[in-house]
Amino acid sequence: MADSKKTPARPALKAVRGTRDLLPDQTPLWNHVESTARALFARYGFGEIRTPIFESTDLFARGVGEETDIVSKEMFTWEDRARAASEKAQQLTLRPENTAGVVRAYIEHKLGETGQLQKLYYIGPQFRRERPQRGRYRQFWQIGAEVIGPQSSGSESPLRDAEILEMLASLLTELGIRDWRLELNSVGSTEDRIRYNQALREALAPIKHLLCEDNQRRAETNPLRVLDSKDEADQDLINALPKIADYLSDDSRAHFTQLLAALDACNVPYNLNPRLVRGLDYYTRTTFEFTATTGQASGLGTQNALLGGGRYDGLSEMLGGPRAPGIGFAIGEDRLILTLQAQQEADATTSGTTLAAPKLDAYIAPLTPTQNPAALALAQELRTAGLTVEVGDGTFKLRKSFDIADTLARHIILFGEDEVATNILTLKTFATGEQVKVAHANLIAALKA
Ligand code: AMP
After folding, report:
1. What is the CATH number of domain 360-448?
2. Which of 17, 133, 143, 303 to mutate to test the pocket of ligand 1 (most atoms within 8 A of CB)?
3. What is the pLDDT of residues 103-129, one digit of tens each?
4. What tens digit of pLDDT does each residue of 304-318 get?
5. Ligand 1 proximal residues by C-beta, below 6 Å
6. Least confident among 155-164, 208-217, 264-273
7. Pocket test for ligand 1, best of 97, 140, 143 (most atoms within 8 A of CB)
8. Structural class in CATH, domain 27-189+249-347
9. 51-85 burial by CB neighbour count: b if 16+ within 10 A, else e?
């Protein structure tokens, strides 16, 4: 029988764990954040750079650091087999962050030879195989920027650090993020860090066995990372470890002092946090993080770091390029959006309002299929005039057209045989319930009123 031959129902495919779809009720906020950032970056002289989403694995191994969690555990890497004898097989990786790619591009296109300071920003997806949770995804978006150039361009100046931090404070304020907090530290020059790492190793040796397993491993491979640890039981021991501030050279200390003076002059508030070393190997001197206030209000819970960054004076050389000091940041766009959504919801609850999507200007209801072509032509005319318009279908019952129009639009335009013949349309405004006849020639003005 035909029925017994039915193919079994196939399970519906879903987005891969840690990835998600952004539907049209969400994307307006994403676009608003991105256009606000683009306009603000332009005011500070930044230009956009778009680098590939995958790069050679070696770029991240060298640029981010083999011992970091990102490179050792979280990258999506594959062997890209050669298709032709002339092509070599390659290890490729979906970018887990964008700074390494930007610095590679800086070197590859010899941007340093212009002698100018390069101010570059990017907006795009990044990929890390982390355990997904609210505010932590395997594909997530970052909005970031880098200021990089030869020393003669002033790229090493603490003023650049202060300008970046002031720009970020302005961006968060302009977006309406309330109660952000800037955590700030200096991890010193590469030489300072070597001395500090040694001091940490020595201090960790006698207490290592008391720490959690992860921290025991970090104490061996990358002692600075112990300072990042959130393990509750280890906190007292970690707080008692030597502080980087005591290992800064005079140069590094002076750089940090000048940065703080410039922030004070711009009234940007900050909290000094000696444990802020951040996860990536390339940071030197200034490191920073902006957090949303913890808990319910931010919508983020424990994933409350909105953005992070720092100086990377040796990164270009690590990637085989010329000396090119730089500083940059990456904003977690997903987290910024979650924070803004949580704020909007809280505001709506307090004020008793609802978050309604903006309505279209008009819904055109052809009354029979005969009017369909003319209805579409009318929609074309109104849209060309800049109005937002939806067209129904002549097979719809009038009741159905009214129901759809009422949810979608501010007005309904009834378009039947009479209307086509007389060129006089029936226009109803939902807010007032008023229904009027409007000459076709006056329709645009009536809708814009
Ligand atoms: P990082 O590149 O690790 O310095 O991260 C910069 C910012 O990106 C963080 O402060 C987060 O806001 C965001 N971020 C990092 N990893 C993720 C992730 N897996 N999911 C969502 N946002 C992330």
Report:
1. 3.40.50.800
2. 303
3. 999 999 999 999 999 999 999 999 999
4. 899 999 999 999 999
5. 97, 128, 130, 135-137, 140, 142, 279, 305-308, 330, 332, 334-335
6. 208-217
7. 140
8. alpha beta
9. beebbebebbbbbbbeebbbbeebbebeeeeeeee
